[in-house]
Each structure stands twice: as structure tokens, then as C-alpha cells.
Design a protein that fits this description.
- By secondary structure, this protein is mainly alpha-helical.
- The protein contains six helices and no strands.
- The chain starts with 5 loop residues before the first helix and ends with a helix.
- This is DUF4375 domain-containing protein.
Length: 114
Amino acid sequence: MREITTEALFHLYLDTLNSCGSYLRNASDDVVGYEVFEQFDIGVVSFFHESSLLRLLNAGLINTETMQRSSELRRLALELQKEDEWSLKALRTSTRWTTLLALADEIRSTINAE
């Protein structure tokens, strides 16, 4: 299997990031189901992995702060996946989800400002 290019990795990282955010609190169940429980779920495991983030950092596509926040986002997502809070109901009501969604918004705004 071939390794993806750094540019393609960055695109997949951004796609994953764009699949998560506070905007989902008011989205339909179908949109949330697709964006979070399909797109974000898969992407956060792969494209927010430490090795992927290091590649993006070394290429100058993200900075150290963005890397740290992205690692934290991945950690929060993996914790929610292991618990009963990896659900549509929890996303709409849980303070842990509020934290995760806000962190995704913060990372996105940082990248857009660079």
C-alpha cells in the first residue's frame, strides 16, 4: 500500500475537522449521524493520529499549538467512543461533547487564521 502525500493527508485532516463542530448541535439527526458517526469517527482515528500530525507539523501545514489541540480532540473523541456518550443523544446533551465540538471550532478558526 502506498503512503498518501502530505498534501492529501492535510486535505483529509481538514475534511475530518470540518465534520465536527458546534454547528452540529442544530443539525438534523441524519446530518449529525453522517458527519460525526461516519466521517469524523473514521478520520479522527487516522488523520489525527500522532504520526499524521507530526507529518503535518514537519511540513509546516499546522503549528505546534494546532498539533496539541488536535491530539486533545482525538483523545476526547476516543474517550467518548469507549463510553455510553458516543451517541446522538449524548452529542446534544453532554458537556463533554460541548467541549469536543468547541475544540474543533477553535482548531478550525486557528487554521483559517494561518
